[in-house]
Structure formats: structure tokens, C-alpha cells
Amino acid sequence: MTYKTLSGKEPAEEVLRDIEHRAKKLHRKPMLAIIVVGEYKPSQIYVKRKIETAARVGVDTEVHRLPEEIEEKELIALIERLNQDKKVDGYIVQTPLPKHINAQRVFEKIDPHKDVDGFHPRNMGKVLLNIFDENMFPPATPSGVMKILHYYNAPIDGANVCVVGRSNIVGKPIAMMLLHHNATVSICHTRTRDLASYTKNADILVVAAGNPGLVKADMVKEGAYIVDVGTTRVLIDGKDKVVGDVDFENVIKKANCSPVPGGVGPMTVAMLIANTVKAAEQNLARLNKKS
Ligand code: NAP
Predict the structure, then answer these.
(1) What is the DSSP letter of 6?
(2) How confident is the model at residue 83 (pLDDT cuts 50, 70, 90)?
(3) C-alpha R_g of the chain
């Protein structure tokens, strides 16, 4: 029996083709602003990828780089400016933020109409309430995971799902999205007793722990669908590499699994740009209503 590699590249291309088409219909290019605080290397790489992908599909970007030691109130002042800036359709604050800044407090200052990462409590609340309307932005990574599962026809309705990780930006929203698709969801974390008893029972397993090698082949169910969200930078033979949480090489012999890199990463970027185009469409619709 061979199993599917759940590559994120093809579903991401599908999303990007649709975005490009929608972006062309607008009277001006959508604009995504990106705030980057500090010099954290992985963030610089992710931001570069977002800028390149946006440009490919006709979305403009502007980057606001702030020094590591910036005070929270200065970051919030920039957010307030971007909330008022008419040429900016949506913006994100690249995470992680330096420890002295309270990320949740920062997210709450973002205008929910411009919150294309979907981190504002209003957008998060809508995920919880299953209100995926034209005024909301679902968080990009969980949306990307859903897109991968749909693209490869993973049967979600009635499935036993295990989500490893309970963060606000990945674990909790993806668990809610899967619940809304009628899965029976267990959410595991570091205090879970006997993690393997949950993962082994899962028809769909989403791993977002940031713990390389956490999920091994003997912890997964034969034929399951496994999405590895984890991205950890490690030095292998002196080279900087990105690895996931799942032992892909062995797990793929037993189940369908997304790779790292090339799985959730490209999907996250595509869903962020999709939210930006949606924000531009909504912006235009609001302007038309006023005039
Ligand atoms: P996070 O805030 O650090 O949360 C990690 C979660 O995993 C926590 O809930 C933690 O449990 C749980 N966990 C860690 N080790 C565990 C273990 N041994 N057993 C069971 N649970 C464990 O991380 P995050 O922001 O959700 O990100 C998770 C991973 O996804 C990271 O590697 C991140 O880089 C990656 N990521 C990738 C993308 C992408 O686009 N590809 C996007 C976002 C995040 P506790 O709550 O008990 O501490």
C-alpha cells in the first residue's frame, strides 16, 4: 500500500490562481502591510516569501521594520496609523514578537476589517461561532490545513481527529474548524497523559507542537491523514534546515502525511494573500456604499 504525500504546493497554487483572478477585477492593486519587529531570522525568510507570493498574484506589499527594543506603545501607534491608512487593505504583525511585548494586547488593536492574519478576538470569536461571513478573516494556517484536507479528500465528517497543540493561532482554531465539519476532536498538549492513545485513534491528525520527531510511525493509525504544522529550524550537517513534528520518512509508509517543508507553509502564505484580496474587495464595497 502506498500513501499520499499531502503537498501544500498544488492546493496553494489553486488558491493563488483564484486570488490573481479576483485581484485583477479590482480598480487598484490590493495592499498588504507587514510589520516586522527585530531581526529574528526565520521571520525575515517568511516575510520575504509573503512579499514574493503577493507580487506574483498582483498584490502590493509594504514592510514596516521596527527595532527589537521598540516599546509596545510605539508598535501600537504604528498599528493605529495603519488602521487609518486608506491605501492599506490589510496588515499583519509578524510573530513571534519580542518577549517584552504582549502579543494579545497588540492583536486587539488591529482593526478587525484589516486583520488579515485573523488574530483579532472578533475574528477568532467568529471561528468559534462558525460565522465564516464576508466580514471575517479566518486565521491563515488553520485555513490552510483545512484546504489541504479538502484538496486530498480526507473524510472529515464523523472522523476521529486529534490536534496536538492548543495555541490560539493554530491548535484551537483548527480544532474548532474541524468540529464545525462534524469531526470528533481531541485537543492534546504537554499535560496530556498518554499522547499516543489519542494519536493512534485519529483518522485525521494535526500536529502543531514545534517539537521535531514528536510523532513516530507507531503512534499513527494505518491510512490516517496527517498534517504536520510544525516548523523548527535545526542545524543538520552544518546547514540550516526546517523540520516538522512528524517522522515523515517512516510515517508515510503507513499513512497520508504532509511534508515539511512544502506542506502547510505554502498554504499559510496563500491563505494570507487570499484574506488580503478579500479585505480589498470589502474595502471597495464599503467605499461604493458610501458614495
Ligand atoms: P506554540 O504556541 O508554542 O504551541 C505549541 C503547542 O504544542 C502547545 O499547546 C504545547 O502544549 C503543545 N506541545 C508542545 N510539545 C508537546 C508535546 N511534547 N506533547 C504534546 N503537546 C505538545 O506554537 P504554535 O504557534 O501553535 O506553533 C506550533 C508549531 O507550528 C511551531 O513549530 C510553529 O513554528 C509552527 N507554525 C507553522 C506555521 C506554518 O505556516 N507552517 C504557522 C504557524 C506555526 P502546552 O500548551 O501544554 O504548552
Answers:
(1) -
(2) very high
(3) 19
Reduced to 3 states, what is the DSSP secondary structure of residue 185?
strand
* Domain of residue 49, residue span: 27-111
Q: Residue 59: name the closest of 84, 88, 96, 79 by CA.
A: 88
* Dihedral sign from CA coordinates of 196, 265, 35, 168: negative
Pick the atom of ligand 1 nearest to 268's CA: 40
Name the helix (H) or strand (E) containing 19: helix 9-24
E strand or H helix at 268: helix 264-290
Give the domain CATH number at 45.
3.40.50.10860
Instruction: Please tell me the total count of domains within the chain.
Output: 2
Do 16 and 56 meet the contact criterion of CB atoms below 8 Å apart? Answer: yes
Please say if the pLDDT value at position 283 is more than 80: yes
Nearest to 107 by CA among 98, 118, 96, 99: 118
Do 259 and 173 fall into the same domain?
A: yes
Same domain, 196 and 145: yes
Strands 232-236 and 256-257: unpaired
Report which of residues 27 and 21 the model is more confident about. 21
Are 45 and 86 members of one domain?
yes
Q: Which residues are catalytic?
A: 50, 94, 117
Q: What is the 170 CA–ligand 1 centroid distance (Å)?
A: 8
d(CA 265, CA 144): 8
Q: By C-alpha distance, which of 231, 214, 258 is closest to 3?
A: 258
CATH number for 219: 3.40.50.720
Cα(208) to ligand 1 centroid in Å equals 4
What confidence score (pLDDT) does residue 22 get? 96
pLDDT at position 253 over 90: yes
Residue of 211, 241, 268 best suited for mutating to test ligand 1, as the one with most atoms within 8 Å of CB: 211
Instruction: Give, to the nearest 10 degrees, the angle between helix 171-180 and helix 140-151.
Output: 40
User: Strand, helix or coil at 116?
Assistant: coil
